[in-house]
Amino acid sequence: MNKKFVLGIYDDEDVLLTAIENIRAAGTKIYDVFSPYPVHGIDDVLGIKRSRLPIVAFFCGLFGTSFALWMQIWMLGFDWPMIIGGKPHISLPAFIPVTFELTVLCAAFGMVITFFIVSKLKPSLRVNVFDKRSTDDKFVMAIEVKEGVTDLSALNNLLRTNGAIEVNEKEVVK
Amino acid sequence: MQHVSPIREPLVTGGKTYHDITEDVCRQVEAKPNARWAAALAVSLVGLAIFMYSVYRTLWFGIGEWGLNKTVGWAWDITNFVWWVGIGHAGTLISAILLLFRQKWRTSINRAAEAMTIFAVICAAMFPVLHMGRPWLAYWVLPLPNTFGSLWVNFNSPLLWDVFAISTYFSVSLVFWYIGLIPDFATIRDRATGPIARRAYSVLSFGWTGSAKAWSRYETVSLILAGLATPLVLSVHTIVSMDFATSVIPGWHTTIFPPYFVAGAIFSGFAMVLTLMIITRKTFKLEHYITLEHVESMNKVIILTGSIVGIAYTTEFFIAWYSGVEYEQYAFINRAFGPYWWAYWSMMTCNVITPQLFWFRKIRRSLTATFIISIFVNIGMWFERFVIIVTSLHRDYLPSSWAMFSPTMIDVGVYVGTIGLFFTLFFLFAKFFPVVNMAEVKAILKSSSGVTHNPHKTMHGTDKDLNTNTHHSNE
């Protein structure tokens, strides 16, 4: 099924943020906004909730800590106990460095892999970008056109009065 | 609204627009390789060839090719290992610690500095792996079941901690670096004209589109990774220093080692960043992005860490005397006035005296002076490790086993070779990857460019007065 979008092109982040506020206040749903860099404050005006990735990182890190401790205690304390330097089999202070490293490793990789999965980022040969200038110097606001709507002049006006320097239409083949 | 401070220098000069940033950074990625770059790469490939030959000799004839002896069982290789790892630390400091401190000047240098980290760690890893003598059994350092070796690995040993620290450091740095590269690869992909470049950068960009949600997550991930990388980088050099500090060799057995090594690592790393950035900004015409302000900021870090290192040298000497331990006292007297006095005084001159010149603003802001001092610091920090390792070992408790160490040609070859390996990787990176983080520089452009200091210009190339339309977010 084809989907139709109206794209408002902006060239300034402050104009864009005001435009997002006004357009959302006018009751129009914004599909997405594409920008060349992270625009600060865009989460608030678009209503994007705080990412829960730090929680993922915490639990992955916790897993790393427990795994590392279990591994060292089991290997040197139970599976093949051996006296090293006259110290106890389970000498916890000596286990801290490896535990710390595995905590960091698991937290970082767990979070990054989750980030790739939830953001649907994966190596692919073809990428559909609404407007190629959005990775260069323009901010692109995409509004999905409801089915059956043919007159786009209202949307066009709304975008233009809110500072869009250009308004385009784009059809995406799903 | 951003407050424009009249005393703060702009971080991007030359009235650049967003599009200019894209153009300036993508230029050398898209252009055909030029002669200067090819010549530089050729020189580093010669270094790489020397590396290959020395590694071949080391593997085929064994560690006997190196200048080690029964008394000095660790020397050249560990010196180089610590030197390279230390250099790597500046990259993480710039990308992680300065991110946590919200230092905006890090944005235009973090990409190259982090690339430097990754390549330096690769070079560092060569030394302990080669020193194993049988590198094809390197996987024995991992905790594998008994059928591979005789027992589990010894988790009480700092050398094993090193294995975990260095490999975690390498993988986390690589991931951190790559996450930052994704949006810039997308920029290059969307500009690419040739089919190969478009496909290659499509794959590399992981299908990045720059949607608001993705950016929000990207920022969260960067922040958490920075939070994880900060204690990580401190732990890595702490653990490296424990390779020495947990032993009972006079000159090594000191509690000052972890902070002293970390400061030294940052010190040498910033020197290497400066060496590389002064060349890179010139070659790729990035003078408007890597400004004198950046150089000055880095020089301030050098003077701080250089002074910490200086204090550490003095403290070590004092404590050796104050401890009343005869062997400890001898180790330090021998360092300064024994047969390796030249190494000690080279270290003192390069590390303690030269960076003090940065107290003068003129010298801090002079590229030539900075470049020369950065080379001095690199040399000094190499001597520091040589002094710590060799002078402590060559005269230990038993005078009958005293010996001297001198490197063989193969030793020199492996070391020079890793420099070749490092620059080969760095030049390939500089050609095919964006050397400046475009997205992050664009993000600071509005608050830190020369344009904001001149209200009559806008940075968008369009002639609109945009300053009237200020965003207020109060909900």
Automatic annotation (TrEMBL), chain A:
Keywords: Membrane, Transmembrane, Transmembrane helix
Organism superkingdom: Bacteria
Keyword Transmembrane included in the entry's annotation: yes
Coiled-coil residue spans: none
InterPro entries: ActD
Transmembrane segments: 55-74, 94-118
Protein name: DUF3341 domain-containing protein
Organism: Pontibacter aydingkolensis
Lineage: Bacteria, Pseudomonadati, Bacteroidota, Cytophagia, Cytophagales
UniProtKB/TrEMBL annotation, chain B:
Annotated keywords: Cell membrane, Membrane, Transmembrane, Transmembrane helix
Main localization category: membrane
Organism, as annotated: Pontibacter aydingkolensis
Transmembrane segments: 37-56, 81-101, 113-139, 159-181, 221-240, 260-280, 301-322, 342-360, 367-392, 412-433
Pfam families the UniProt entry points to: NrfD (PF03916)
Listed Basic and acidic residues bias regions: 460-475
Subcellular location: Cell membrane
Family: Belongs to the NrfD family.
Topology with respect to the bilayer: Multi-pass membrane protein
Gene for this chain: nrfD
Region (Disordered): 454-475
Lineage of producing organism: Bacteria, Pseudomonadati, Bacteroidota, Cytophagia, Cytophagales
Protein name as catalogued: Polysulfide reductase NrfD
Superkingdom of source: Bacteria
